[in-house]
Amino acid sequence: MIRSKLFWMVPLSLTLGLLGCGGGQPPAEQSGGAAAPSATPAAAPAAPIDPATAATITGKVAFDGTAPARPRIRMDAVPACTQRSSEAALVEEAIVNDNKTLRNVFVYVKEGLGDRSFPPPAEEVVLDQQGCVYHPHVLGLIAGQKLRIKNGDPTNHNIHPMPAQNREWNTSMPPGAADLIQEFPRAEVMIPVKCNVHPWMKAYVGVLRHPFFAITGADGSFEIKGLPPGSYTIEAWHEKYGTQQMQVTVGEKESKQVDFTVKG
Ligand SMILES: [Cu+2]
Question: Which of 49, 55, 248, 249 could bond to 231 as cystine, CB 3.0-4.6 Å?
Fold first, then answer.
């Protein structure tokens, strides 16, 4: 809990400072990428992972305690946010599934891959703004992978990631705006994203140098496959409950289960 509170205080204070000096200006980065932090230096090609010997880590994130209430997000004063949906949006800070597991946990290999690096895949990851809520709430990217940001709402959004290791930016997206394509060149877990227009809009982006991550969904489980045999530190991150780590060693073709328990 302490960790997660600190986590929020820093970005909030930064944000207030920025808003005080002309927030809402067009982002500088649209004129070109020259000011962007240099990308992670290209490493030598990773030793190929032999799919015939690759290992798998599976597990779930159990929730021990009383599930926090999920109040409605108070957006009634903004009809453009609510008019296209018949269902009220609920606060997403902590979602406990029916099977007593926790949703939206970012589970990833924190250590153990050595110097291996993985080029970003060609496929994009989509972050959509619909009903003044980010979809998905938590997502993962490989450093340099394209993030396509959409605005499906008849209202203006101003998307604003607040990274510590990557360059900060914010971009206004009026209704009907062309998709915004962005990328984060440096690994960072996690990057909070907010909307400068709608204070309840929050998302989190995990950026890794490798593809070994998963995000728990409606059953609280995860699967990380295709791993080279080895010893790994697996971290589970949640926006409200902070982080936990587990050590696991997997041999050739081995599958091991790693279960986390989060106390509510
Ligand atoms: Cu917004």
Answer: 249
Least Cα distance to 258 among 212, 192, 210, 208 occurs for 212
Q: How far is the CA of 174 from the centre of ligand 1 (A)?
A: 10
CA–CA distance, 7 with 190 (Å, rounded to integer): 10
pLDDT digits (tens, 9 = 90+) for 85-108: 888 899 999 999 999 999 999 999
Quickly state the pLDDT bin for 44 (edges 50, 70, 90). Answer: low
For residue 132, the CA-to-ligand 1 centroid distance in Å is 5
Class in CATH terms, 117-209: mainly beta
- Ligand 1 centroid to 191 CA: how many Å? 17
For residue 20, the CA-to-ligand 1 centroid distance in Å is 19
State the Cα–Cα distance between residues 180 and 158, nearest whole angstrom. 11
51-79+90-115+220-264: CATH, from 2.60.120.200, 2.60.40.1120, 3.40.50.300, 3.40.50.1240: 2.60.40.1120
Burial of 47 (0-12, 13-18, 19+ CB in 10 A): exposed
Distance 220 CA to ligand 1 centre (A): 28
pLDDT in tens, 204-241: 999 999 999 999 999 999 999 999 999 999 999 999 99
Distance from the Cα of residue 211 to its chain's centroid: 13
pLDDT in tens, 136-190: 999 999 999 999 999 999 999 999 999 999 999 999 999 999 999 999 999 999 9
Q: Give residue 236 CA to ligand 1 midpoint distance, Å.
A: 28
Domain segments of the chain: what residues? 51-79+90-115+220-264, 117-209
